[in-house]
Structure formats: structure tokens, C-alpha cells
Amino acid sequence: MSTTQPLGRTAVATPLRVRDQAREAAALIAFSAATASALALGLLLLTHLGSQG
């Protein structure tokens, strides 16, 4: 096995705090809601315009 780090030195990432995880989760929820709303509005607009033909 080959490693890219010298022996005895391990890079340990500090875990995110709960408030940081909650902030990221809230941002993901907001992004998902905005995307879903935009898609739904676009489909509604397309069906509305298509039914007037």
C-alpha cells in the first residue's frame, strides 16, 4: 500500500459544529424548495400556454 502522507502524520479534519451542519441543511432545503418551485411554475406556464392553442 502506498500513502501520500509521511508515516506518523495524519491529517484529521475537524468535524463541523452542529450549528454549521444545521446552516448547511437549511441552505440545501431552501435551494431545493426554490428549484422545485421554479420547475413547477415553468411547467404550469407551459401547460397554460399549450392549452390556449
Structure characterization notes:
The chain is mostly helical and 53 residues long. It has one helix and no strands. The protein is elongated, with a radius of gyration of 23 Å. Keywords: Membrane, Transmembrane, Transmembrane helix. The chain crosses the membrane at residues 25-46.
Strand fraction: under 5%
Order of helical and strand elements:
H
Task: Classify the helix fraction into a percent range.
Answer: 55-70%
| Termini separation | 67 Å
Largest sheet: none
User: What is the strand tally?
Assistant: 0
Radius of gyration: 23 Å
> Number of DSSP helices?
1
Low-pLDDT segments, ≥5 res: none
The global form is elongated
What number is the mean pLDDT?
87
Would you tell me the structural class of the helices and strands?
A: mainly alpha
SSE map:
Blueprint: H1 18-51
Transmembrane segments: 25-46
Keywords: Membrane, Transmembrane, Transmembrane helix
TL;DR of this structure?
This protein has one helix at residues 18-51.
Q: Which terms summarize this structure?
A:
single chain; 53 residues; mainly alpha; 1 helix; 64% helix; elongated
